[in-house]
Amino acid sequence: MGFLKQLTQQILSIWQKLETRQKVTLAVSVVAFLVIFILFLSWASRPDYSLLYSNLSLEDAGQIVKKLKEDKIPYYIKNGGKAIFVPSSQVYETRLNLAMEGIPKGGQVGFEIFDNTGLIGMTNFMERVNYQRALQGELARTIESLDEIVAARVHLVLPDKSPFIGEQSHPRASVVVKLRPGAMLRKDQIYGIAQLVTGSVESLKTQDVTIVDQSGSILFGGEVNNPSSSFYLTTNQIQLKKEVENYLASKVQSLLLPVVGPDKAVVKVDVNLDFDQITRTEEHYDPEGKVVKSEVRREESKQGTGTVVGGTPGVKTNLGKGAILTAGNPGKETTEESELQYAVNKRIEHIIKGVGNIKRISVAVAVDGTYKVGPDGKKKYIPRSARDIENLSSIVKQAVGYDETRGDKVSIINVPFDTSSKEEEQIYWQKVSRWELLKHLPRYIGIGLAAFILFFLLKTMTKIFTSTAQAPSPVAGQRTEKVSPFEDEQWLRQRVFQLAEKDPRKVAQIIKVWITNHGRA
User: For the packed helices 504-520 and 489-502, what is the interaxial angle rounded to 10 degrees?
Assistant: First the structure.
């Protein structure tokens, strides 16, 4: 307490001995310093905000804001209420608390609709409608969990069951998905969504599910997945053609990249595929390779007495009225039969020609030349030599599997590339980076200005105190109104008494020096 009292008395003594101009300067400096210091503290203590949720529906945003107000969590809203920001230190905790409350719901109503006890006494029709709404909402939430999907809606057609078999109708489902910018769903993901919906709805078949994106393009269902449809065949043929062309183009591009450098070559590939489906059966016979398949031999012999009838030629003999002579003649009869059946070598082949075979490949490559900076500082284009073009052509042919018998073609053209758009893009991003720097520049300027003002104030106060403490002593015959605080009689007396009590030997030495100096003067 004694030290604070002495310090206060000393400050008041210094203040009373200051000139009016010095008092005004000191007061303004202190006030300015306090204002800047308070502003700096408020800016430094302001929390750093991070994104809590984005792409919110108005219903979810309203529930989140209500919960944040109840928990007294600071926030601010952007993007028309679709994005909510909270302090970075409270993002994860806030998300956990909201999840415990079932927020956000994604704008869809799930099976929590049956948590309302007021539904007791509802008609059968309303129960079926609520069940359909809940099932649609749960499916939409599950589909939205995919990284590529921003939002999803599911529409179900659930017909009533009929007691007559002939009047039974199958349920149907339609799914609309909104993809993130630049995102695409793979075929297995699309099929997975269809199977998810099929497995969640009783008696629903996969062919009764239709999936479309936000642009109205059919991703699954209808003619797209009917193998007997010409639309199905055409779509898949085009897709296969694109995949083969992109695969070959990427191979060529990866080979040319280390040779000519980045952004120095453009490769385009056109592939002619054979989609004819041919089933052929061939039978081949080998006449030289015949073998006996079967042999049949039959032999028959007869032996006995024969009778020979004869007489005088004429009518009577012919009529049996003349003299007829008979004589016995023994005989033997032998019959032989032989049958051979040969089998000829035969080969039967059933050939099914696969679809998608490459009939012809055409490759076009545009290659940029080299550049040299001239004495005037401008770039000069230098075309590549014929040998370089030939080497590049050989590389391209090896990469795509060039076959001259198929009629494949490879064309490489050396032309200067137009880089003006790229330069404009670089200039644009330079401006963007400068703008980002300018956005943070006021903060750095504020910090520097506060530091400068603080330094200036400290320097000014030090100068005032120093000038007051080092005021010149009065000259003989001259009066002065300024008295240094160190020459105040009461203050000096107190200091001498305190020093004498603490260190009397030192005080004696000081008095001895004063007497000695006074005697010399």
Answer: 130
Gap between the Cα atoms of 139 and 330, Å rounded: 108
Q: Quick one: what percent of the chain has pLDDT higher than 90?
A: 11
Number of C-beta neighbours around residue 339 at 10 A: 9
Biggest alpha carbon–alpha carbon distance for the chain = 220
Query: In whole angstroms, what is the distance from residue 351 CA to residue 21 CA?
Result: 111
pLDDT bucket at 177, cuts 50 / 70 / 90: very high
What is the DSSP code string of 342-362? EEEEEEEEEEEEPS-EEEEEE
* β-pair partners for 209: 173
Short-list 22, 42, 27, 49, CA closest to 450: 42
Whole-number Å distance between alpha carbons of 223 and 213: 16
pLDDT tens-place string over residues 246-270? 999 999 999 898 888 888 899 999 9
Structure tokens, 22 = 């010095």
Neighbour-count burial of 369, counting CB atoms closer than 10 A to its CB (0-12 exposed, 13-18 middle, 19+ buried): middle
Residues 132-166 as b or e (16 or more Cβ within 10 Å = b): ebbbbbbbbbbbbebeebbbbbbebebeeeeeeee
- DSSP at 221: S
pLDDT at 186 over 50: yes
